[in-house]
């Protein structure tokens, strides 16, 4: 399969959106129709990756303000949930009866569970 770019006589892609509607490899004389289709699919995939890269870069450079605000609200709620969970665990521990201890001949105290 030849991977030569389209020649100057082939139609060129004038904008990134044209790649999705016009196959620039279609009339290339050295490519079979299947090769032209495969190269077109690769070109469309490359455009998607380029677009994704641009959007990722934009998000990295300036975080989404609404997303940050929503995450801050969620962070506060999770902090409250953690505090309430700790309090409930503490309450459960305090509600348990104190374990009985006994003294053996060496005066060691150990906890006995019945």
TrEMBL record:
Superkingdom assignment: Eukaryota
GO terms for cellular component: DASH complex; microtubule; mitotic spindle
Biased composition (Low complexity): 1-16
Main location (coarse class): nucleus
Classification via InterPro entries: DASH_Dad3 (IPR013965)
GO MF term set: microtubule plus-end binding
Subcellular location per the Swiss-Prot or TrEMBL entry: Chromosome, Centromere, Kinetochore; Cytoplasm, Cytoskeleton, Spindle; Nucleus
UniProt region (Disordered), positions on chain: 1-26
Pfam family, one: DASH_Dad3
GO terms under biological process: attachment of spindle microtubules to kinetochore; cell division
Keyword terms, alphabetized: Cell cycle, Cell division, Centromere, Chromosome, Chromosome partition, Cytoplasm, Cytoskeleton, Kinetochore, Microtubule, Mitosis, Nucleus
Protein family membership: Belongs to the DASH complex DAD3 family.
Name of the protein in question: DASH complex subunit DAD3
Naturally occurring in which organism (per UniProt): Ephemerocybe angulata
């Amino acid at each position: 399969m030849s991977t030569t770019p389209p020649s100057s006589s082939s139609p060129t892609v004038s904008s990134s959106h044209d790649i999705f509607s016009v196959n620039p490899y279609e009339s290339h004389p050295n490519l079979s129709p299947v090769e032209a289709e495969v190269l077109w699919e690769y070109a469309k995939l490359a455009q998607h990756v380029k677009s994704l890269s641009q959007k990722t870069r934009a998000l990295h450079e300036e975080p989404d303000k609404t997303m940050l605000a929503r995450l801050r609200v969620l962070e506060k709620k999770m902090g409250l949930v953690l505090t309430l969970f700790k309090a409930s665990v503490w309450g459960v521990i305090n509600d348990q009866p104190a374990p009985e201890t006994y003294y053996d001949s060496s005066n060691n105290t150990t906890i006995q569970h019945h």
